[in-house]
Amino acid sequence: MQHQVDGGLNENEISQQLRSEDGRQNPPQTDTLRDEASTDSQQNYHLFFTDIHAALRELTATVTEQKVNIRELTATVTEQKVNIRELTATVTEQKTINRELTDTVTEQKTINRELTATVTEQKVNIRELTATVTEQKTINRELTATVTEQKTINRELTATVTEQKTINRELTATVTEQKTINRELTANIRALETRLTEEMNKKNDEISNLTLSQVELRKENRDREIAFSASLMQSGDGYIGPFTTEITLTYRNVFTNIGNAYNPITGIFTAPLKGAYMFRVSVFSHGPTVASAYIVKNGEHVVVAHDYRPQHDLNSSNGVVLILEVGDVVYVRLRSGMRIFDNGNNHNTFSGFLLFPLREQELCRM
Fold first, then answer.
1. What average pLDDT does this structure show over 254-266?
2. Are 309 and 258 in contact (CB under 8 A)?
3. Which of 140, 214, 229, 361 stands the most exposed, by the fewest C-beta atoms within 10 Å?
4. How far is it, in rounded angstroms, from Cα 110 to Cα 309?
C-alpha cells in the first residue's frame, strides 16, 4: 500500500527524489562503493521511511492547525478592516470636531480676556468687601456685647415675670373675694336706696304739707332773728353714701335753730322773710372715695365742698351769701358716687343765719 501525503507525492516518488538528491550530493567513485552504498541504502530505507512518515503526519497536523489559524486570522483581518473604516469615519468626525473646538478655543480666549477684566474688577470689589467685612466684624463684636447685656436683662425680666405671675394669682384671688363683697354691697345699696326713696317721699310729703298759713306766719315774723346750725348724727358713727343718685342730707343734731326756719326732719331751710343770708357747709370723710356736697337753692347748685385723696382724711368747707325771697328753700345734697363720714366729733355741719332783711326798694337798688 502506497501512502500519499499532502501535496500529491506517494512514497515511491519520494524515494526516487531522495536517491536523485543523494546522487547529486555524492557523485560515483567506483562501482564497488556504489554497490556497497546500494546495499546499505536498501537496509536503511525502511527505517528512514518510517521516520519520514511520522514526521509527515506531524507536519500534516501542524499544517491543518495552521490553516485553522489562517482562517481565524483572515476573519480577524476582515473585522479589523471594518474597524479601520469605522476609525477612519471617526477620525473624519474628530477633525470636524477639532475645527469646531478650534473655533471654540478662539471664542474662549475672547471670553478669557473678558473674564480677566472682570476678575480685575472683582479684585477691587473684594478689597472693598474686605474693608466692609472688617467693619462688620467690629459691629458684630459690639452686637455680641449688646446681646450679652440683653440676655442678662432677659433673665432679670424672666424673674420679674415669674414674680408678677405670683402677684397676679394673688390679685385674682383678691378680685374674686372683692367681687363677692361687691355683690353683697350691691344688695345692701339697693336695700338702702329703697329705704332712702321711701324717706325722700316722706320728706316731699312733709314739704308739700307746709300750708300757706305757715308761710304767712313766717312773713309776720320779719323782725325776728334767724340762725341755725346742725350736724348729721345725733349719736353713733358711720358713712353716708355712696349712692347712685344725689340725696338731700338731713342734719338731725341741731345745735341752734333760732326762728325755727330749719327743719331737721327734711334738712331744708325755708326763708321766713326776704333778706341776705349767710350759709356754710363742711364735709369730712376718708380716702379713697371722694367727699363732696352742694349747697342748693330752690333746686339749683350754688357752691360745693369737695376733697379727694387716695388715702387718709378728707376735709373741705365752703360758704355763700344768698338773697332769698320769702319761701325760698336752701339745703345740702350729697353727690352721687361719693360719701361722707361722721361721729360724735360732728365733722359735717350745715349752718346759716340772716345777715339783714331787705325791702323792695333796696332790692331794686342792688
1. 95
2. no
3. 361
4. 91
pLDDT digits (tens, 9 = 90+) for 311-342: 788 889 999 999 999 999 999 999 999 989 98
Contacts of 14 (CB under 8 A, 6+ apart): 5, 52
Closest CA to 247 of 351, 316, 336, 329: 336
One-letter amino acid at 114 equals E
The span from the CA of 31 to the CA of 37, in Å, is 10
> CA 269 to CA 302: how far, in whole Å?
15
**∠ CA 297-303-307 to the nearest 5 degrees?**
140
Q: Is residue 235 within 8 Å of residue 353, measured between CB atoms?
A: no
Residue with cell 470636524: 96
Q: What pLDDT score was predicted for residue 360?
A: 59
* Distance between CA atoms of residues 226 and 271, nearest Å: 9
Side chain identity at residue 310, one-letter code: P
Q: How many other CB atoms are found less than 10 A from the CB of residue 305?
A: 22
Alpha helices by DSSP H, listed for the chain, are 11-25, 31-208, 212-220, 360-365
139, pLDDT greater than 90: no
CA 263 to CA 21: how far, in whole Å?
189
DSSP string, 197-230: HHHHHHHHHHHHT--HHHHHHHHHTTTS--EEEE
Q: Which tens digit of pLDDT belongs to each residue from 276-315?
A: 999 999 999 988 888 999 999 999 999 999 988 887 888 8
For 22-46, the DSSP string reads: HHHHS----HHHHHHHHHHHHHHHH
Alpha-carbon gap, residue 19 to 12, rounded angstroms: 11
Which of 221, 225, 218 is closest to 355 using CA atoms?
225
Question: How many whole angstroms separate alpha carbon 348 and alpha carbon 249?
Answer: 10
Query: Residue 334: what are its φ and ψ, rounded to 5°?
Result: -85, 130
Strands 291-297 and 275-286: unpaired
Amino acid at 230: A
Residue 316, number of CB atoms within 10 A of its CB: 19
What's the CA gap between 58 and 354, in Å, rounded? 175
